[in-house]
Amino acid sequence: MELAYIPSPSRGVWNLGPIPLRAYAFCIIIGVFVAVWLGNKRWIARGGRSGTVADIAVWAVPFGLVGGRLYHVITDYELYFSPGRDWVDAFKVWEGGLGIWGAIALGAVGAWIGCRRRGIPLPAYADAIAPGIAFAQAIGRWGNWFNQELYGRETHVPWALHITSSEGGRVPGYYHPTFLYESLWCIGVALLVIWADRRFQLGHGRAFALYVAAYCVGRGWIEYMRVDDAHHILGLRLNDWTAIIVFLLAVTYIVVSAKKRPGREAVVEPGASDGPTEGAAAAEAGGAEAGAKADAEVEDEAGDKAEDKAEDKAEPDAVEAKDEAESAKKS
Questions:
Q1: Which residue pairs, CB below 8 angstroms and at least 24 apart, start in 72-76?
Q2: What pLDDT, in 10s, does the model give residues 122-133?
């Protein structure tokens, strides 16, 4: 008898009348809100307008969901198009199955469209939302816990995940909770990106590239532990190869970008800083005060010069009048 383990929820769907409330969907929605909230704070700190991140997310999120589902369906096509399977299930996103690689790739396309419409550089936007995406992934992985899916090899460690469902070929037992491993790893990635961004002033997409590279490292060893069906190439799961390739691309981008475009973008959102800031207004007021003082000094100096000139002119006239008076007295 196991003394300690992580229990699986007895259900992942609650019905509110005819409306099903799915925990998997709620995890994704909560993750999106966290990503947008944190991204907005970081965007404002970089000099952008409040609300811009959410406006662009309106494009990025739907594209990301479609991309994530497409990647999953393409790489696991036998689950939907093999004999005895119903291809309609490919559209049932709520049952689980979103590939992060496709979500990021197509989500970037949606973000690019939103950024282009507002005249915003995509790399700057990506840097702002990178930690939020990692936090969103950490939250979204708990949807796999509710669905009792994507667990690892069998184990008897105290934190083992107890799988109770036998649907879809599952074998009840105790397994490595890879959903928890990835959730914790994503939290670490988010904190790493936030720290590195503050420490090194990352810009031009390098904070986002750091997030991608760090996530790939964790996804590599976590993917190795999973036991769900997957395509293998040269002994490695397909997602392992994807993580390796994407990691190399991300690191290459960081190195090349740092050499070609060091530092951060000076302006991330055109027009966001229009109008005098509080400091500029104070400087302007101070300048006006200094100007008035200078004018007063000039006026005083001019008055002193005029007075001196008058005195200089009056002095010889007085001497001349005195001489004439003395001459008249002698006469």
A1: 72/97, 72/98, 72/99, 72/102, 73/97, 74/102, 75/99, 75/230, 75/231, 75/238, 75/239, 76/229, 76/230
A2: 999 999 999 999
